Amino acid sequence: IDGAESQLLATIVKNPDNATALNALGYTLANRTDRYEEARTLIEKALELSPNEPAILDSMGWVLYHQGDLLESLHYLRKAYEQFPDPEVAAHLGEVMWVSGDRGSAMTVWREAIAKNPEHGVLTSTLDRLGITLTADAEADAGEVDTGTE
User: Fold this and answer.
1) How far apart are the C-alpha atoms of 24 and 5, rounded to whole Å?
2) Which stretch of DSSP H or E encloses residue 69?
3) Contact between 111 and 93 (Cβ < 8 Å)
4) Phi and psi (nearest 5°) for 120?
5) At a CB cut-off of 8 Å and minimum separation 6, what does 20 contact?
6) DSSP secondary-structure letter at 5?
7) Residues 6 or more apart in contact with residue 99 via CB below 8 angstroms
């Protein structure tokens, strides 16, 4: 992470309006550290520069999730997923839905994503971390998920 941070900071110093670099650094900090305020500031600036960029919307949703703002996080992640139904965005959206208690919607998002990208690292690691096994049969999935209610 130190090397990536140094390279991205160098890019930002040369071009402070580089939304891609701002977002990349913000996302990296949100995903790999607990420096959420710093990450959010970078992502907010990237959003000002490119307000409809799905990757930046995803990053904002992800940092908001880490800051505990589930409702606002869902707003950004849904918007990102509508524009770009990428498996990493699906992993993030599904996780926030899951944690928010909307487990049926989370399963739907994940099932669609895993059908198209069964080996995607972020998606599969998210499902593994949450103890979720998806099958081709939605009814079977409901029985295989530990919902923590027992």
Assistant:
1) 9
2) none
3) no
4) -65, 125
5) 46
6) H
7) 65, 70
Tokens of 87: 């498996």
Rg (CA), the chain: 16
- In 10 A of CB 72, how many CB atoms? 14
What's the pLDDT at 31? 93
Tokens 């990296």, located at residue: 28
Distance CA 95, CA 147 (A): 13
Backbone angles phi, psi at 93, to 5 degrees: -60, -45
* Residues 6 or more apart in contact with residue 112 via CB below 8 angstroms: 85, 90
Mapped onto helix, strand or coil, the DSSP state of residue 22 is helix
Local mean pLDDT, 10-residue blocks, the chain (150 residues): 89 97 97 96 98 98 98 98 97 98 97 95 96 68 43
Structure tokens at 91: 């992993």
